[in-house]
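WARN retry 2 of 3 for item q-0093 after timeout on previous attempt; input resubmitted unchanged.
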Amino acid sequence: MQLNQVSLEARHISLSYGTTEVLRDVTLTIEPGEFFALLGPSGSGKSTLLRLIAGFNQHQRGELLVDGQDITGTPPHARNIGMVFQNYALWPHMTVWDNVAFGLVERRESRDAIRRKVGAVLELVGLSQYAKRRPGQLSGGQQQRVALARTVVIEPKLLLLDEPLSNLDKQLRVQMREELKNLQRKLGLTTIFVTHDQEEAMTTADRMAVLDKGILQQIGSAAGLYDFPHNRFVAGFVGTANVLEGRVTAVSGETVSFDVQGLGTLRLPRPQEAPAVGAAALAFRPHQVHICVRDEQVDASRLWLDGQVESAEFLGEFSRYRVRVGELALITDQPHYAGLAMFPPGAQVQLGIEPTQVRFLGS
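OK item q-0093 returned
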């Protein structure tokens, strides 16, 4: 089962409720067949944007195009866009078969067509043997598959998913996000899903857009956003980051001098796009910081800082330390191995930052 692949383009979309701006000049392009995530905290505007694409909200400015055709004035029922809601919205009194067939019945398709299409999509999501059951007799993961089947069976131009995994426990979420990705690949259907869970977005989406306070912060692949965040918000929201505020005092040759508030001057390799002299911030990830005892012989290529452990957490795969360095607290994650003793609070340590992994940030 392979569906048509269409593109979606938002051009300078703005939406306000009274004086409250919910979306501000959002511009993005989603490619045909792409699995695209809208990622952001509560109130960022991601669900508003998804509902706007479905036709449930109306923007005041901008254009919304599907395969180059502006659908701004098209009502929801005429857009042929499928949406799976957070609570699945299944009919509790109907069987799985009837829930999935509902949209086809509404469209007055023939009995043979309904039988063929519902059978095919139930097989696709692995629910053929549950066709006569009702939603209340299914697990949460199975209910989600029914909701997906009901949406896919009408062969929509776009598939919209609103926090699709939020009602599932952690283990089932991991399983279902893999199933979601596999289903999307089989269908080739352009899919947009909303989530506040960075891991969910990073493990499923081809690309993602990060929103905050109605403003599009950055678009890119998971690795691109993680390794090269444009600003403080993206650095802190996509993964965990140490962010140091300060001032670039000099850019000379291959070196950037950066004065950090409460720490002193750091001398770092000059990046390809050198920062301007003036107020700035830099970021690096906790796993890129090595921790060892004070005065241990160290790798000279790293930037070393003396500190004292404030707290230590054992998280299974790694141990996370909060280390006081000057007036700052830095986070470092170290892989855990059986028999490896943790540094206790109060331990005198040194932190080694990998200079090539440091990123200067915009505002």
